[in-house]
Amino acid sequence: MASRGGPRAAGTDGSDFQHRERVASHYQMSVALKSEIKKLIYAHVGIWLLLLAQMCVGHLKLLPHDQVAMPYQWEYPYLLSILPSLLGLLSFPRNNISYLVLSMISTGLFSVAPLIYGAMEMFPMAQQLYRHGKAYRFIFGFSAVSVMYLVVVVAAQVHGWQLYYSKKLLDSWFTSTQEKKKK
Prior knowledge:
The protein is mainly α.
């Protein structure tokens, strides 16, 4: 093409190399999806730490039970939901498909399933609160069932988006794997 300070090749302005410097779309998508999943994992860790704090305060009796209620049964298996997030993070550096698949499966088992069970477990208490206005468990003056339903809704959205982006990331990795095999 052209030397550093010397003449350029005839018929070019030196910008015809830019098409070769584009990053393939599946690599761009992989980077973007990894970033989104990391944000969701950080949100999940925040939710997880709040539930862990509530459980510790409830069991260690650091505050009276009228301020922080004892945890519901679904919160105990939900504590295992940190494992899928760690597997997801471990899959990122080398695009490890098997870790990402394990992360997706265990997200359903350890994250989504306890949330569904929690929604069903708390439904009679929510119904009683709605119909009669009576709550028996509180978290800092708020009805515990209302606070925990809010946690369930936010956590379900976080895990739903995490699964969606993980599936798209998996598809992106399969695309790059298939292109490598064709070469």
